[in-house]
Structure formats: structure tokens, C-alpha cells
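quick one, two chains, predict together pls
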Amino acid sequence: MAAMRALRIGFAVILCLSAIACGGGGGTTSGGGGSSSGGGNPPPATANTASVVVDAGPMGDNVNTLFTSVTVCAPGSTTNCQTIDHIQVDTGSYGLRILAPVLTTLTLPVETLANGNSLAECTQFLDGFSWGPVALADVKIAGETASSVPVQVIGDSRFPNIPSGCSGTGGTQEDTVSEFGANGILGIGPFELDCGDCDVNMEGLYYACSGTTCTGTLVPAALQVPNPVTHFAADNNGIIIDMPAVAATGAVTLSGSLIFGIDTQSDNQSGTQTVLTVDGNANLLMTFNGQTLADSFIDSGSNGIFFADSSIATCTNTQISTFYCPGNTLTLGLSIQGNNGVMANNLTFNVGDTQTMLSTAPTDTFNVLPQLAGTLPAGNDASFDYGLAFFYGRRVAVAVEGSQTSVGTGPYIAF
Amino acid sequence: MPLFRSLEFKLASLPFALLACALVPGIACATLGEPEVSVQTDVANLHASIKSSADRSGYKVHEIQLATGTMLREFIGADGKVFAVAWNGPTKPDLRQALGKYFDTMASAPRAKFHNRKHMRIQQGDLIVEGSGHMRALTGRAYLASAIPGGVNLGDLH
């Protein structure tokens, strides 16, 4: 196991050197604004295109997790900056969040409310929560800049006391790189803000802190953590994730592009793709195995294909008992309907045997596992979560709510 | 979904079943594994209001509308104890309140291999906590496997 992990890290380092703007041994580099890029394959980053990669991640244990590098600077500074590698690219959330320990040379100013209190956030994920202040930063990715944009600094030692209302939401406290599984997360889903209602009647996410005492608060939209793409000076109406196809059994790594803007440059033009608008929860309606699943979603931040099908065996290995182990690979059908009624019919996906993937060469060293699939709760409100595997071999556009492109108005996902 | 919608319709069409448990002594919305008591305390702690209560076959459901916009449902068996809670909405409920003593049981569960921020399933003794969802749309439930009344479909616990 240790040897396998070392091998994975080795591959990751090799890839890091060749394909993506990476940091030094500590995971970051400091000084000098803007991103850098290596040569080789894929092409170096251009003004609106960042390199992305699926690799083992900072702890060496990730699968199907997409990463990029982001440069953050103190607002207005071109020298007080750090480039952070292994920021997860997530179309299922909104906002840039960085783990405090990777900000080794940079202290970002915490936002203050009108009453002088500092602003902190309890970000809720399905499996846990992340606590930390909201700070201002200039966020630079490829050639794009979002100036003085709110970002969350997770696990900041200046805010040590997690309110009980935050920890009470349960699950894992994801406040370290180890627990988070990334140096940060770049939420670039189809909405603008990480909270729909926090300026008027929802006090569960944001907190006003006086000293180390924090109390739930409403917060004006302008102070909330936004999808940073919406704050770029240009190319700010959405993103395109363009990933090459990968062998059915997977690969050690996979590199692709994160392109900013839709129909704003020659490299991000819409074509004849299917445009599916998402509903008020950013969900789609998927039909699988005769079930209509209204709360379904396509998500670059999910590391498998997750759905309920009691006819497929789950793995007997208790470590992976929520994943499918059908023995032979299954090919299953799926259709997806947008909120606009547009259908993407006759899609197929494969479900591999998870135990075989993990215990048999060469897939046991792979970080790209397109056939990795697991369970979700069955029931009348069941969901289908089509994770990063959906993006393999596709060019997927995510248009932000209210934004115009040549093929529609966001929020939509198109492929 | 069609089943879910028809069920909602049924609730709406049966006003006698819509007992606001905050207003009716003896009908309560409480904590997983605990008797159905003292709804006022629970609701106050959750900054919530009771939307409705209904009898289903073999059990009762209380719907608690949280101020955050999230709906919390508590399922009470014939023995008067809460055997499941379920939630969906933009944020999770205060599970320390809703799970009671089982909150620590959930916290003690080891983290799963290939854990992911968009879904979870914990099985720790009799307790199962599971869900899926992404930022601004989270769905989950917790239940005591041995306490599910006979004939109850897990799919209805949402």
C-alpha cells in the first residue's frame, strides 16, 4: 500500500512538472502575480485557459478529482501573491476556498461587516463542514483576474472557535488539507453566490465575529463568497471544461483545459451541443432504470457515478461497501432532461467492479477511474450524481445564471 | 416523484390530519430514538415552526420548517419514539439536536475510503446516516435500522 502510494505520488510529481503550474515542495510558490505554465502536453495556459489535471492530489489518495492552480494576491498587490496548486475544480459549488496552512507567505484581509465585526463562514458540504473567515483577494487564473473578491480561508488559526451551530451540522470537520483532500476548492457552478438567501433570512452559513466569539448573521450579497468567474473583467459568463477521452479502464492521470467564458473568444464558441437549463437548485431530471430522478446533477466535484440500483451487487470489502462490485463491467443507459424540457437521450455509462479496480494491476495505480460507481439512498426523492467521469471525453459548458450566450441564457449545462 | 407528489396532495386534502403539533398537547416532534415529547423545546432550539403532522400507515410524520428554508421531517413509530429523521434544503439542520445521543455515534464513524463532499453513508451500529447533494441543495436522512416499523418502505422516509 505504501509502495503504491509512493508510486502515485511519483507519477503526480512527474505530471506536475510537465503539465500544470505547480508550487514548490510545500505545495505553493510565492511572489510574482499571474500563473505560470510548463511546456509539453497539454498546451500552456492562454489568456482564458487554465490547465487542469486529474491526479492523486496533495495527500496522494484521490481518485477522479480535477485540480488546477490559482494565484491569489492581497487586494491591489502584484507582489504579495501565492500560486496554489491542487485546487479542486468543482461545478457543484460556488466560490474559491483555500486551506489556511497553504497560505504560507500571504495574509489576506478579513472582510468586516458594517458594525465592525469580522465575517466568517460555515460552509456545508453533504459529508461535513469547513469553517473559516471570509477574506478579500485578487484571484488570478490563467490570464483572468477577479479583483478584491471574497474568498473563504478554511481552518484559519485566527478563528479557532467553531460555533456549535456550525459543528452541529455534522459530518467531518474539513479544515485541514488532509481532511479536505485538496489545497482548496474552486466552485464554478451555474450560480453566482454560495448562498441564495443569506442576505434576507438565512443565518446558518455566515457568522459575525467579535474577537473569537461568532454569531450567525445575515450578510449583504456583495460580501458573500461568489463564483469568482463572475467577477472576472471579461470571459465571466461561464466556463468550459474540456477533457480528452480516457481508456475504459482509466489512467494514472488525465490533463485537460478549463476555459473561461462562453462565446467570448475564438476558443470558447458554442456549437451544436445540447443545452440543458438547470432548476432552482441547479439540478437536472435524469431517467435511469425506469426511475425519474428530479434531484440529479452533473458534478465535476464528485469522484464517482452515484445512483441507487439494488440489482447491482455492492462490494463485500467493508472499506468500499458503498461502491458497486458487479463482477463483470455493466453498460447502463441514462437520459437527462433540462428544466427547459430539452432531452439528452440514450447516454450510456459503465459500472466496473470496484474491488477489481483497486486490487488488480494496472488499475490499482490509476487516479482516473471512469467506471467507478457507488450507491445513493433509494427512495422517492432519489438522485443520480454523475461525477467527473461525465466530463471525460467531453467538452462541457456551464453558463452562469442570467448570462447570455449564443445558445441560451444561464443557468445551463451544455455538452 | 409521482408517489411523493400524490402523497403531498393527500396530505393537503386531509385537513384533519394536518395537526400542528406545536399547538396540540401530546403531539410532539422530537429527537432520534427519543419519545415524542416537548416539541416546544425542540422547535425553539431549531428556530423552527411546525408545518404539518400526518398519520401514515403504521407511523406518524411531523414536518418542521426551519428558518433556513430547510424542511426537517421526523418519523414516529407506534411506540411513540422517533425512528428516523430526514431533511432537504439549502443547508443541513442542526443534527446535534435532531440526532440527540446518536450525533456522537455519527461522529465516531470512520471516514470512508473515496469519501466525497457530495454524498455520504455512515453505518455505525444501528444508526444509518446517508444523503446526497451539492451546495445549496442538500438531502439526507438518519434512521435506526432495528426501529423501522414492519412494512415501512425506506423510500418513503424523506
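Chain A touches chain B through 64 residues (CB under 8 Å).
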